[in-house]
Amino acid sequence: GNSVTQMEGPVTLSEEAFLTINCTYTATGYPSLFWYVQYPGEGLQLLLKATKADDKGSNKGFEATYRKETTSFHLEKGSVQVSDSAVYFCALTVYGNNRLAFGKGNQVVVIP
Amino acid sequence: DTAVSQTPKYLVTQMGNDKSIKCEQNLGHDTMYWYKQDSKKFLKIMFSYNNKELIINETVPNRFSPKSPDKAHLNLHINSLELGDSAVYFCASSAQTAMNTEAFFGQGTRLTVV
């Protein structure tokens, strides 16, 4: 089946620190990969995506590269801001599967 | 214009009651979903409809009944509400093309059963 694994636990870091959130996946077929962000009290918003191997998705200073050889799609940002505090979800879908498989999410807290 | 809108945003009700949550999308998508998010933020798919037909029903109690009157609407009716139904319910939609399978989410409905 299709599944996504995110690193355990919340992430707390200081403003301007480097952020990495790990995401690995298993999939039948060729998945499209996504990072969604959920700000407090809001719904999920697409942050970035990549639809084939070696693609790099980027948005708002965040980046993630689709690595087929390591089945990974790690999220990075070079200098976080307090406004980046949110829950981040890695997800995948395979065309024809009609569903998004989500990781468990990581709460990111950025301290001034 | 909100792409995926669901109402109400908050719903507080007593055990045993019946309630509905409505969802509408104006993106022209052919697939709509209901997800449940628990207190630990874990997201679990409940249902998926494609062109008004149910295609995914993920071992959800039959007290939950989705209804899709047309492609743009997917409502969720819940009978005999239980304490464990308290959660945030998200509606989403997507266009099932090969390269554009991202989903767009509503703002969520926070259901509290007391």
Task: Walk me through the structure.
The complex is a heterodimer of chains A (112) and B (114). Chain A has 112 residues and is mainly β. Helices cover 0% and strands 52% of the residues of chain A. In chain A, strand 5 and strand 6 (44-50) form a beta hairpin. Chain A starts with a strand and ends with a strand. Chain B has 114 residues and is mainly beta. Chain B is built from no helices and eleven strands. Chain B has strands at 4-7, 10-13, 19-25, 31-37, 43-50, 53-57, 64-70, 73-78, 87-94, 103-105, 109-113. In chain B, a hairpin with an 8-residue loop joins strand 9 (87-94) and strand 10 (103-105). Chains A and B meet through strand 5, strand 6 and strand 10 of A and strand 5, strand 9 and strand 10 of B.
Question: Can you describe this structure in just a few lines?
Answer:
The complex is a heterodimer of chains A (112) and B (114). Chain A is an all-beta fold.
SSE topology:
The complex is a heterodimer of chains A (112) and B (114).
Chain A: E1 3-6, E2 11-14, E3 19-21, E4 23-26, E5 31-38, E6 44-50, E7 56-59, E8 62-65, E9 75-77, E10 86-94, E11 101-102, E12 106-111
Parallel strand pairs in A: 2-12
Antiparallel strand pairs in A: 1-4, 3-9, 5-6, 5-10, 7-8, 8-9, 10-11, 10-12
Chain B: E1 4-7, E2 10-13, E3 19-25, E4 31-37, E5 43-50, E6 53-57, E7 64-70, E8 73-78, E9 87-94, E10 103-105, E11 109-113
Keywords:
heterodimer, A: 112 residues, mainly beta, six-stranded mixed sheet, four-stranded antiparallel sheet, 12 strands, 0% helix, 52% strand, globular, B: 114 residues, seven-stranded mixed sheet
